[in-house]
């Protein structure tokens, strides 16, 4: 591995990428332009450490940002998020993301975003996590949420992390849902 491509591994415990990163099946009836449902499995895991890896890390104390660039991988418990880049904005004077005492304001992930849990996966072009409102949004030309044989496709997935309520928008197209009848028999 060359010097310029050395991976940076960064670990701290915080509600950070609590990045809500736990997805639950989105079941329910499809609507022509959007669909809403509960994602009750979406929980913040503030008590579990978060491990972040990237090719490069730039911390800008004066603007309270941390830029993770290249092959970003975030792991918290059984949840993994991958993307090309991630920008973390944090609050507070004197708080440092490197010491783990920063309060996260927003997290933006860009480029081939993939969220995985033990049973679900979501893919998108971009993601925005607002830790103040506890809302995360995945957007892109094709946002796909899947669990087993159940697949939901749209262009914008908005999840309220506190309630688990989710909405999948079509952005002028149609929301597409494929439900596997076998998944309903287990309930």
UniProtKB/TrEMBL annotation:
Residues 51-164 form the Organic solvent tolerance-like N-terminal domain. Pfam families: LptD_N. GO terms for cellular component: cell outer membrane; outer membrane-bounded periplasmic space. GO terms for molecular function: glycolipid transfer activity. Residues 1-32 form the signal peptide. Transmembrane segments: none annotated. This is Organic solvent tolerance-like N-terminal domain-containing protein.
């Amino acid at each position: 591995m060359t010097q310029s491509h050395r991976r940076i591994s960064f670990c701290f415990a915080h509600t950070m990428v609590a990045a809500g990163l736990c997805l639950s099946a989105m079941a329910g009836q499809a609507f022509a332009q959007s669909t809403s449902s509960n994602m009750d499995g979406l929980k913040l895991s503030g008590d579990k450490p978060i491990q972040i890896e990237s090719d490069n890390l730039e911390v800008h104390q004066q603007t309270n940002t941390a830029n993770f660039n290249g092959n970003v991988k975030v792991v918290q418990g059984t949840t993994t998020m991958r993307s090309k880049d991630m920008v973390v904005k944090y609050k507070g004077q004197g708080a440092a993301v490197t010491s783990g005492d920063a309060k996260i304001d927003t997290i933006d992930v860009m480029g081939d975003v993939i969220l995985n849990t033990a049973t679900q996966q979501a893919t998108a072009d971009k993601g925005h996590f607002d830790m103040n409102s506890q809302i995360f949004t995945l957007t892109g030309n094709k946002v796909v949420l899947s669990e087993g044989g159940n697949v939901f496709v749209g262009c914008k997935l908005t999840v309220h992390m506190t309630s688990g309520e989710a909405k999948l928008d079509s952005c002028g197209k149609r929301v597409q849902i494929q439900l596997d009848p076998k998944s309903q028999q287990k309930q």
